[in-house]
Amino acid sequence: MGTTEAGIIRAIAKELMTIDNSQIFDLKDIANIQFECGKCHGRYVARLSDWRKVPVVCSNCNEPLVKAESLEHEALQRLKDALTKLLESKNPDLIIRFELTTVKS
Ligand SMILES: [Zn+2]
User: Fold this and answer.
1) What is the DSSP letter of 56?
2) Do residues 66 and 54 make contact, with C-beta atoms less than 8 angstroms apart?
3) What whole-number distance in Å separates Cα of residue 43 and Cα of residue 35?
4) Disulfide-capable partner of 100 in 19, 23, 42, 90 (CB 3.0 to 4.6 Å)?
5) Residue 45 in 3-state DSSP?
6) pLDDT score at 64
7) Ligand 1 center to residue 5 CA distance, Å?
8) Which has more confidence, 15 or 71?
9) Residue 66 pLDDT > 90, yes or no?
10) How far is the CA of 65 from the centre of ligand 1 (A)?
11) Helix (H, G, I), strand (E, B), or coil: what is residue 17?
12) How many angstroms is it from 31 CA to the middle of ligand 1?
């Protein structure tokens, strides 16, 4: 009977075991961050370990990407800082993973 609490827990556990692990990656697996210009689609790729500043202008077409001093710029800077700190962390008690959305065709 699948409607008992134990049955439901078993069903959830079975569902969790069948999750496609290729859709899950560790924080430490992130190598690069990519920014793409919405106008010319030029791409700026930075190694996470070398990412120094948020690109504000497209290096290909010179159009602005994000306004300096804007909330978006600040959020990107904080993302950079947070990722850097988390990657430098040696906390063995916490493993951070990201799961990609499943694209259904
Ligand atoms: Zn551009």
Assistant:
1) -
2) yes
3) 6
4) 23
5) strand
6) 95
7) 55
8) 71
9) yes
10) 8
11) helix
12) 23
Task: Name all contacts of 26-29 with Cβ < 8 Å and 24+ positions apart.
Answer: 26/95, 26/96, 26/97, 26/98, 27/83, 27/86, 27/87, 27/96, 27/97, 27/98, 28/87
Confidence of residue 70 (pLDDT cuts 50, 70, 90): very high
pLDDT digits (tens, 9 = 90+) for 21-57: 678 888 888 889 999 999 999 999 998 878 888 899 9
- Going from the Cα of 42 to the center of ligand 1, the distance in angstroms, rounded, reads 5
What's the token pair of residue 41? 């689609």
Distance 87 CA to ligand 1 centre (A): 30
pLDDT at 31: 87
What the block records as the tokens of 61 is 């077409």
Instruction: Output the CA 40–ligand 1 centroid distance in Å.
Output: 4
Q: How far apart are CA 51 and CA 98, in angstroms?
A: 20
User: 81 C-alpha vs ligand 1 centroid, how far in Å?
Assistant: 25
Could you tell me the distance, in angstroms and rounded to a whole number, from the CA of residue 46 to the centre of ligand 1? Answer: 16
